[in-house]
Specification:
Elements (H helix, E strand, L loop, with lengths): L23 E3 L6 E4 L5 E3 L8 H4 L2 H11 L5 H10 L2 H12 L7 E5 L5 H8 L3 E6 L2 H11 L3 E3 L11 E7 L8 H11 E11 L1 E2 L15 H4 L7 E4 H11 L2 E4 L3 E3 L2 E7 L8
Parallel strand pairs: 4-5, 4-7, 5-6, 7-8, 9-10
Antiparallel strand pairs: 1-2, 2-3, 3-10, 8-13, 11-13, 12-13
Helix pairs in contact: 4-5, 7-9
């Protein structure tokens, strides 16, 4: 397979409307995106064709070429970065809050590279499983972090069982199917389970500028090569309601455009 090194030669798909069916108005700050007139979601109008995702996120191209070319660490160095910049401590801390009283419970991480979150939680006694779209990346994680990983694109990958915690850090914004994504999360959660996600989330209630969100990180968040749907708090609640999930909290973040939100299947007994 030829290494892409960039997405310049990848065929583009066309997204004519929002996930909710709403018409897209022009988004002056980033014309490659539109803004839904119904729910306010920002939509990438011309993302890479989803049939090429195995190439876009291939081990050689994504982790060892395109990321490095953009000044981002390789997959091996990402593990060190996550530990040094505090995000791993934040993720594991939230996970331990949500899993209190469920020692030995089960965790699924969607888009688990470099595998360090799962290895940390496995060391704490939890049963873990990761998902990565690329087979070689999945194998690298299994070998280097000693955790089980399956390859495939969520939510299309067939999975069975129920999980006490589902996590997705910097992955939801990459999904072409946000409704199916959250439906699958709902179906894989235990009745008293939680799901935690980190992604760009425009929070007007926290003072985020709707016309050009995320301040200095605007360009990183609105990355037309990778990010498909960027939600607001309101549009996220609308999506969750549609699929039968509830927003528990969304006030934490690791950094700007790395906002965190937590959901569950029902609010009865919610402890946060």
């Amino acid at each position: 397979m030829t290494i892409l090194r960039s997405t310049e030669n990848v065929p583009r798909a066309s997204i004519p409307c929002c996930w909710c069916g709403g018409v897209l108005r022009t988004f002056p700050a980033k014309p490659t995106y539109g803004v839904c007139v119904l729910c306010g979601t920002y939509v990438n109008r011309k993302p890479p064709d989803p049939t090429f995702l195995d190439r876009v996120y291939s081990f050689d191209d994504y982790w060892n070429e395109s990321r490095v070319a953009r000044g981002m660490p390789s997959i091996a160095d990402t593990k060190k970065q996550f530990k040094e910049d505090g995000r791993l401590d934040l993720w594991t801390g939230i996970a331990m809050e949500l899993l209190k009283g469920k020692e030995g419970g089960s965790i699924l991480e969607i888009g688990c590279a470099p595998g360090v979150f799962l290895s940390e939680m496995q060391a704490k006694g939890f049963s873990v499983l990761g998902i990565e779209p690329d087979k070689e990346t999945a194998m690298w994680i299994q070998v280097n972090e000693k955790v089980p990983v399956v390859s495939g694109v969520f939510p299309d990958l067939p999975l069975a069982g129920e999980f006490d915690l589902i996590a997705g850090f910097d992955v939801f914004e990459h999904s072409y199917k946000p409704v199916a994504f959250m439906e699958k999360v709902r179906d894989l959660l235990r009745p008293d389970g939680y799901a935690v996600f980190q992604c760009p989330l425009v929070r007007p209630e926290a003072g985020y500028n709707r016309e050009k969100p995320f301040e200095w990180a605007f360009g990183n968040a609105f990355n037309e090569d990778e990010h498909i749907f960027i939600f607001t708090t309101g549009s996220l609640i609308r999506l969750l309601k549609k699929v039968g999930l509830f927003l528990v909290e969304n006030y934490r973040r690791w950094a700007v455009h790395h906002e965190i939100f937590i959901v569950r299947r029902n609010l009865q007994g919610t402890k946060l």
